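A quick word before the example. In earlier lectures we treated sequence and structure as two separate objects. From today on, think of them as two lines of the same record. Here is MFS transporter written that way.
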Amino acid sequence: MTTTERLPSPLRVPAFRSLWLGETVAGLGFQSTQFLLPLLALTAAGSSATGAGLVSAAQFVPVIVFSLVAGATVGRVSVKALLITCNVLRGLTMGVLGIVAHAAGPGIGLLMAVAFVVGALTVFHDIGHQAAVPHSLAAGRLTEGNGLLEASYSVAQMAGPAVAGYTLQEFGLPATAAATAVVFTVALLCFLPLRLTPAAGAEATPALRSVLKGLRFTWRHRALRDLCVQSALFNLHEQALITAFMVFAVRSLGLSSGMVGVIVGLGSVGALAGSLWVGRYAARLHVGAAVTWSLTVSALSLLAGVLLALTGPAVPALAGAFVVNGLALAVYNVYALSLRGVLAPPERLGVVMAGYRLVSMAPIPLGAVIGGALAQSAGPGAAMVVITASLTLASFALRRSPLRRIRRLTDPAAESSLERR
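And the structure line, produced from the sequence above:
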C-alpha cells in the first residue's frame, strides 16, 4: 500500500470538506454575477460592445488594486472570518443592485460599480481560499483535492450562466439579483464549521516586506514564473474572446440571454469531465506533459470552433469548442494549483498566491477592453479569429519551460530546484 493510499480521501478531511462545500456554492454565485453584469450592459442598459467590455473589466480591475493587500491580509487574519465576511458583503451588494435596478433601471455606472465591489471582495475570498487548501491536505492528496475543487468550479461555470440567463429572461433583474444574494448567503453558512491550523513558521514581518518576498520568490522560481506568465497570457486572450463572443451571440446571432448562458455553460461540461478525470488518474500522469500540452489543446479547440462557427452552424461549433477547451483547461488548472501549493513555502503561501494571482489575472481587464474594442471596430467574428489565433501561438511558449521535466507532483521541489535563478 502506498503512502497516498493510506491518506484519507480529501472529502473525509473536515477542513477541506468545509472549504470545498463553501467554494462550490460561492463559485455558483460569482459565476452568475460575472456572466450577468456585462449581459445587462448589452441588454437592459442598451450599451455598446465597448460598454460591455468596460463592465467586464471592472470586475477584474480589483485584482490589480487589491491582490497584494489580500495576500498580506491572509497571513494575519482568520481565514474563516475572511471567507464569511466576503460572502456576506457580496450578497449585500447583489441585493442592492436588485433594489436600485427595480426603482430606476440598471445604468452602466451602477453595473460598473457593482462589478468593482464584487470583484474586490472576490480577490480577498479567492486568495484566502487558495492559501487555505494546501494547509488542509497532505501533498499526496493535493491534486485529488484540487481536482474536486476544479470540478466544482466547472459546475459553477456551467450552472451559473445558464441559471442567471434563464432567471433574467423569465423573472427579471430584481429576482435574479435576489437569488444570487441568497447563494452567497448559503456559501457563508458552509464556511461556519471550518477549523484550520495556522501555518507553522508564519512570518511576523511587515506586510509590504512580506509581499515583496513572495513576489521575489515567485519570479526567481523558474517553474512558478513560467506558470504565472502563461496563465497571464491565457487570461488576457480568454477574456477578450468572451467579450467578443457576447457581442457576436447577442448582436450577430440574435440569441436570447438564456441561450447565451447555455452555450457558455456547456463549455464547463468538458471542464467537469477533465477535472474529475485528472483528479482520479493524477498519480499516473506525467505532470510536465499534462501542463505544457493542455493549454495548446485548449487554444486550438477555440480557434477551430470559431472558424467553423463563421462558415457553418455557429451554435454547435461554439458549444463543441467550449467543451473541448474546458476539458483541456481543467487539466492545466488542477496541476497549476497543485504545483503552486507545494512549491511555495508554507509561511509564504498567502503572498505567493497573491503575487501569482496579481500577475496572472491583471491582464483580464485589458483583455475585456481589447475584446470589446476589436468587436466594435473589426466586427465580433473577425475579433474572435484574431484572438484565438494569437492565443494558439502564445500557448506554444510553455513547451520551452523546464516544467516539462517534472514527472510527479509529490516531490516537484526536488525536480525543479535547478530552475531557480
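Notice the following. The chain has one domain: 11-419. We will return to this example when we discuss secondary structure assignment.
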